[in-house]
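This week, think about what follows.
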Amino acid sequence: MSSTRRRVTEISEATTTTTTKASTLRPYLACIRNTLDAAMCLQNFPCQEVERHNKPEVELKSSPELLLNPVLICRNEAEKCLIETSINSLRISLKVKQADELENILTKKFLRFLSMRAEAFQVLRRKPVQGYDISFLITNYHCEEMQKHKLIDFIDIDKEISELKMSVNTRGRLVATEFLKQFI
C-alpha cells in the first residue's frame, strides 16, 4: 500500500513540476511576443552618414538618437531574451535553457545547424550577440516582405529542442528494450 501511495505522490509531483514549468513558460513567451509585436513598427530610414545606403542602425549604433532602449526579458538565469530596437531594424538575442548535458548537446547542434543555413533563413545572424546562443536581425525590408506573426513565431526555439530531446529519449528507450530482449 505504501509503495502505491509513494508512486501516486511521485506522479503528482512530476505533474505539478511540469504544470509549473508550462505555466511560467506561457507568460514568458507571451511577453516576448507582445514586445516583438510592438517593436516591429520599423520604417525605411537611410543612413545619415553615407548617402543612398540603408544600414541597420541597431548594428551600426552610429546615431544614438535613432536607437531605442533595449528590453531584457528573463524567465530565469538560463533563459532570457534581449530585444534591441532602432528606427529601421530590430535585433533579437536569445539564451536558450540548457538544463542537462543532453539539452546542452542538442542546443549546440541545433543552433549550429541553423547558423550554417543563415542565408536561407534571412533573419538569422551567423554570429550571436556576446552572452547569447542565437540572434536574429530583422530590418524594415523583412517586415515588408514577410508576415509579421510568422517572424514572431520563428523565435520559439525551446519547443524544437524539447521535441528533439523527447525524440532522443524515445529512441534510446526503444533501443534499450530491443537490446535487453536478448537476455530474457
Q: What stands out?
A: The beta strands are 71-74, 80-85, 89-95, 134-139. The chain has one domain: 24-157.
